[in-house]
Design brief:
alpha/beta, Spore Coat Polysaccharide Biosynthesis Protein SpsA, Chain A, 8 helices, 7 strands, 37% helix
């Protein structure tokens, strides 16, 4: 990949073979006109439907590369792997289902100047009624328990400063709390409305269990971690530079 790039777009993939041709075309079109010179990093999370073969073909383009897991490890791990391997000053995150569009990255990038992260929120969601109800319920519980002020923490469109993202403590399920973790690190987060679309191919990997029960467990894990989070400021030191 070109080291002159300023942003790496991380795309976690798990069994999305039906979406990948269209996704690749949309991402290529975006890269051609992006306001910040960017590249794409796919993270294949142990797909078993032929997604990896499709990704390998897509990555013949030098602006695209991939990481492939030996086995399925979950969305949080896929995002963390992308963050860990990001070499550009900024990183973007988008899901492979194209219910959000990479063209909205430019809207987020316009605001990144004074912020550690600019995140999207889906004001006009194009999901099924049951999915909307589950998400609304989950967001209300999350806000009542951690009061982070985040409108739509699950929106899969974010731009984050890489140095901030690489400082965040991660464990399984923490992809739901990326904005809250940035605030915990005394970072600044801005929220911007982004477009949302119906899923055109493939199937959602989420259900009532991983939209409600698992997030509730993770909320209490986050509250526990926040109550014991280590912070300190050095007032003075006698350390030599470079040591």
């Amino acid at each position: 990949m070109n080291n002159e790039n300023k942003m790496t777009i991380i795309v976690p993939v798990y069994n999305e073979v039906e979406s990948l041709d269209r996704l690749a075309d949309v991402l290529k079109n975006y890269l051609d006109q992006a306001s910040v010179k960017s590249q794409v990093l796919f993270v294949d999370d142990g797909s078993s439907d032929g997604s990896m073969e499709k990704i390998a073909s897509i990555c013949s383009n030098p602006d695209f590369s991939y990481i492939r897991f030996k086995e399925n490890r979950g969305l949080s791990t896929a995002i963390k792997a992308g963050i860990d391997h990001c070499k550009t000053p900024l990183l973007g995150y988008i899901d492979a289902d194209l219910q959000t569009t990479p063209f909205d990255f430019d809207t987020l990038l316009e605001e990144i100047g004074d912020y550690d992260a600019v995140i999207g929120y889906r004001a006009k969601r194009k999901d099924t009624l049951s999915k909307k109800i589950q998400s609304t319920f989950a967001n209300k519980i999350r806000r009542s328990l951690i009061d982070d002020g985040i409108i739509d923490t699950g929106c899969p469109l974010k731009v984050i400063r890489t140095d901030m993202a690489q400082r965040l403590p991660f464990f399984d399920g923490m992809h739901r709390f990326i904005p809250a973790l940035i605030l915990l690190e005394s970072g600044k987060v801005k929220q911007i409305e982004v477009q949302h679309f119906e899923r055109e191919a493939g199937q959602s990997k989420f259900n009532i269990f991983n939209r409600s029960v698992r997030p509730l467990q993770d909320l209490f894990a986050y509250r526990w971690m926040r109550s014991r989070y280590i912070r300190y400021e050095i007032a003075d030191h006698t350390l030599e530079e470079g040591r």
